[in-house]
Amino acid sequence: QVHLAEFGGGQVQAGGSLRLSCAASGDTMCISSMAWYRQLPGEERELVAGIIHGSGRTYYGDSVEGRFTISGDEIKNTVYLQMGSLRPEDTATYYCNVRPTDTTHCYVPYDYWGQGTQVTVFP
After folding, report:
1. How many whole angstroms separate alpha carbon 91 and alpha carbon 102?
2. Cα first-last separation, the chain
3. What's the pLDDT at 105?
């Protein structure tokens, strides 16, 4: 099992910045990638950004590319999301995600999710 603890979030005016962090614990050897998703009530979760363990390759959702930066510290098993030029439409609950590896020890038929942290951007 992998456990996720999210930090950061809050309220900010449009144009401002916030930083989220997510620390993984437990079977951290089972982490294939870590990512942030966001969700509004009644809507599907949307990919914000992710980072692949080992290679450090990053990927972003179209709506945030160029404004948000994801980075990771594999020693601390922590991923960071630096959000800049925030817009009211970035308002959502942000969830940390871990996709596990498919090795015999680690395989589970689901991803791991954090409890979510609220980000609110005022016009």
Report:
1. 33
2. 40
3. 86
